[in-house]
Design a protein that fits this description.
alpha+beta, five-stranded antiparallel beta sheet, 20 helices, rod-shaped, binds adenosine-5'-diphosphate
């Protein structure tokens, strides 16, 4: 876990430019420390600090000062540019400049073979110092290194050219130092020829290498450092090959030298071996890198294929969208569009791209489009609008809802304006018809409301009319009741009057009758024939009148005592009447049949007795000549009533008289034919009505009649069935 964490941290540090700058600062501190140590050696005359080995060349005092100065300069430059104060920056430049000047002056001394006094400015060196041409003078390579390093540190790293120059100069600084370093590694003690210029102290070599590396690290985003940090294939190759490119030749060189020294092989053959080794090593490195690149390439191809597929899909998607989609640059020039747009505009994408709205629509419309583009750009957000346009595809007018959106790339740079337009004609039409339908239904609703109000008014009127009718009805009923009461009163008065009249008529009639009989008895013989005839008429008429008055009185009296409604068992009543009529039955040779059992009606026993009496009387009277009367009495329950029937086989009644015969004094025969007063059935009728009953007659003239009296049935009768 710790290792993992370290690895992660290292990777992060490797990525972070700040850590490279930190490295540059520490390289500066290292060089300055080396320089300071050597100066101390000069100051305190400690040889071990001047040259690390008694046989080796010393680090010259001015070179030591140069390292101190350039180390500080590098340390200053290693700070982030934005955190540096102007003083720091100027100090850095001045220090770097003085280092370059030191190198330049020393080189000039070598070139011109003069002593400018820069060598022993700080300390004097005794004559004959190891590998030193002039006392205290640094090696020409060192001078060159200071010159290149000083310039590299001075250059303005903010400019691209400065960056490149810095990289080159810093790398150039490393080479002479590296050569000197190799002389130590390979144990070359007394190089001659150009090698004699490369006698640097070992710590000088280290200090230059540190400074060169540190200077490179000042700009981690550029040059070799950027390459080493890079995550792409170039970075991988650089990280792999660079250490090999440095270490491998060093190792091969060392092996060659060792071979030479141990006389393992002849020097010329050694070169052959070196060549072969290089061939093999480089071939292996190339194969290794090539494989890596191939792999990376394959991966890239795969990625490209995926990208192409995505692109194709995106293209298909864009072109399948039914909406019109297009992209314009900020100046309004078309960059791209989809198939729907092509169809609507009536042009191919290739012909649209590079043109503006002014190439397709009239200037006025194009102005409107452009204004909307600019509005979206100004608002920095989507803007929608609706407009009627003509489709080039079918010449149809379409309502387009257009949304324009400013489009930015991932870095936030404005790419252009994305336009999306949707044909909303159908929706618009639907909305229109919906609105129309709504208006229509609103109208209908209002009409319905009117009708409802009218209906309500009509109802109101009807209700008023009904109330009026009810009022009238109530009045009418009241009047009917009043009139009925009046009629009943009048009827009662009439009955009372007829009763009193009949009653009062009896006394004078009796007097007339009495006197007429007296006259007939005592003075009959003194009257002539005509007189006697008149007298007989008087007697007969008065007798008849007596009978009439008696019957009338009888009629009037019927029910005067009030009606007592009770169950009336008919059998004892009929038996009693049979006895009463027995003489007349015998005299007429009649046969009376009673169909027992007789049902029991509810009524007044006196009235029912009167009814049966009168009906029996008529049945005996209106018999056919020479035919013995056949009379039957029955009483049956019918529909909750008791139907009392008296049937005879007499002369019968013509249909036209069936109603009339129940009225007072209504007779169908003369007194000579059949005696009577025409009151019997009237009494029957009155009695029946008084008991809430009904009477009807069925009759066939010459065959017989049946009188049916319907009366309420008694309670036990009702429950019996
Ligand atoms: P009256 O018998 O005194 O004439 P009613 O009122 O009893 O008076 O009868 C009225 C008339 O009805 C009679 O004149 C007769 O013509 C007719 N009538 C009544 N009962 C019968 C009957 N059973 N058969 C035929 N006619 C009848």
């Amino acid at each position: 876990l710790l290792a993992r964490e370290i690895a992660v941290n290292l990777l992060a540090a490797w990525d972070s430019p700040a850590s490279w700058r930190a490295f540059a600062r520490s390289a500066g501190i290292t060089a300055a420390a080396i320089g300071l140590a050597a100066l101390t050696g000069w100051l305190l005359d400690i040889d071990a600090l001047k040259s690390l080995h008694p046989d080796w060349v010393t680090m010259k005092a001015n070179a030591a000062a140069g390292f101190l100065v350039s180390g500080v300069a590098l340390w200053l430059k290693g700070h982030e540019a934005d955190r540096m104060t102007p003083l720091q920056r100027h100090a850095g430049q001045a220090l770097a400049g003085s280092v370059a000047l030191l190198g330049l002056l020393t080189l000039f001394e070598y070139a011109a073979s003069i002593d400018l006094g820069v060598d022993q400015l700080l300390f004097r060196e005794s004559l004959g110092a190891i590998k030193t041409l002039a006392p205290g003078r640094m090696a020409p390579t060192s001078a060159l290194c200071f010159l290149t390093l000083g310039i590299a540190l001075m250059l303005d790293a903010a400019k691209p050219r400065g960056k490149l120059a810095t990289s080159i100069l810093a790398t150039a600084t490393a080479f002479p130092a590296l050569v000197s370093g190799l002389t130590y590694l390979y144990g070359i003690e007394n190089a001659y020829g150009i090698g004699s210029n490369a006698h640097m102290a070992l710590h000088t070599v280290l200090a230059f290498l540190a400074l060169a590396a540190g200077t490179l690290c000042l700009q981690p985003e550029h040059g070799i450092i950027a390459l080493l940090r890079s995550r792409d294939a170039g970075g991988v190759i650089a990280r792999r090959l660079l250490p090999a490119a440095i270490l491998l030749p060093i190792l091969i060189g060392w092996l060659k030298l060792s071979g030479d020294r141990t006389r393992l092989f002849e020097p010329g053959f050694g070169v052959a071996l070196v060549t072969l080794t290089f061939i093999i090593a480089l071939s292996l490195l190339i194969a290794w890198s090539a494989r890596l690149l191939s792999q990376a390439d394959a991966e890239r191809n795969r990625a490209n294929a995926v990208i192409r597929e995505n692109e194709a899909r995106l293209h298909l998607l864009l072109h399948s969208i039914p909406d019109l989609v297009w992209l314009k640059d900020p100046q309004g020039v078309f960059l791209s569009c989809n198939a729907a747009f092509e169809r609507f505009a009536g042009a191919r994408e290739a012909d649209i791209v590079g043109k503006t709205d002014y190439d397709f629509v009239d200037a006025e419309t194009a102005d409107i489009f452009r204004a909307k583009d600019l509005a979206a750009l100004a608002a920095n957000s989507s803007r929608s609008s609706e407009e009627w346009l003509t489709s080039a595809e079918d010449g149809r007018r379409a309502l387009l809802e257009t949304t324009k959106t400013p489009l930015f790339d991932s870095a936030g740079k404005l790419l252009g304006i994305l336009g999306i337009a949707r044909d909303i004609t159908t929706r618009h039409m639907a909305e229109e018809s919906l609105r129309a339908a709504q208006a229509q239904s609103q109208r209908l609703l209002e009409e319905a409301n009117h009708s409802r109000l009218a209906l309500l008014n009509a109802l109101e009127d009807q209700r008023a009319a009904e109330a009026e009718v009810q009022k009238l009805n109530a009045g009418l009923e009241k009047r009917v009741r009043e009139r009925t009461a009046e009629l009943e009163a009048a009827n009662g008065e009439l009955e009372a009057f007829s009763y009193s009249v009949s009653h009062d008529l009896r006394a004078p009639l009796r007097a007339i009758n009495g006197f007429a009989q007296l006259l007939a008895r005592r003075h009959r013989d003194s009257l002539n024939e005509e007189g006697r005839h008149h007298l007989d008429n008087v007697v007969t008429a008065s007798e008849r009148m007596g009978v009439l008055i008696r019957d009338l009185l009888h009629y009037s009296r019927t029910g005067r005592g009030g009606v007592r409604s009770v169950p009336v068992p008919l059998e004892p009543l009929v038996r009693h009447l049979g006895t009463t009529f027995s003489e007349r039955i015998a005299a007429t040779g009649a046969r009376l049949e009673v169909a027992e059992p007789l049902a029991t009606p509810l009524g007044d026993v006196t009235l029912i007795g009167q009814i049966i009496t009168n009906l029996l009387d008529n049945a005996l009277i209106y018999r056919r000549a020479g035919v013995a009367p056949q009379i039957s009495i029955s009483a049956q329950r019918e529909n909750g009533k008791v139907a009392l029937r008296v049937t005879d086989n007499g002369i019968g009644i013509a249909p036209e008289y069936h109603e009339k015969i129940f009225q007072v004094f209504q007779r169908l025969h003369s007194d000579e034919e059949y005696p009577g007063t025409g009151i019997g059935l009237a009494i029957v009728y009155k009695a029946v009505r008084m008991m809430d009953g009904e009477i009807t007659v069925e009759s066939t003239p010459g065959e017989g009649s049946t009188f049916s009296v319907r009366l309420p049935a008694a309670m036990e009768e009702r429950s019996a069935t």
